[in-house]
Write a structure and sequence with these properties.
2 domains; elongated
Length: about 120
Amino acid sequence: MEGRARAISIAQGFYRNQDLKPSEIYHLLEALNQEWLLFIMAKTEQEETRRAISLYFRNLKEVRPELRGKDLKDMGITPGPVYREILDGLLDGRLNGELSSREEEVEFVRKRFMEAS
């Protein structure tokens, strides 16, 4: 029942906010298993919701940043909670089409997390 309630809540969220970025769609849907996503697609009357779930399956689900924790350590960043912040930022950048190469990811980390120190 909890999964169904969460699925319905997410479907309603799409109805209320149809201008979501790809990263926002990803984060809304990543916690649901495939069966619940298909349930939402089958039950919703909102075309935007169906499109968002389709986008998730086709394009967003498998997106990953190229940089990993080892790369961040090699860049001189001390391991810790900042790694999650960096990796989440890289993932969002990839999902939203703002980062498309390893070099762009490195530059993102340098500008946002190393120059600020």
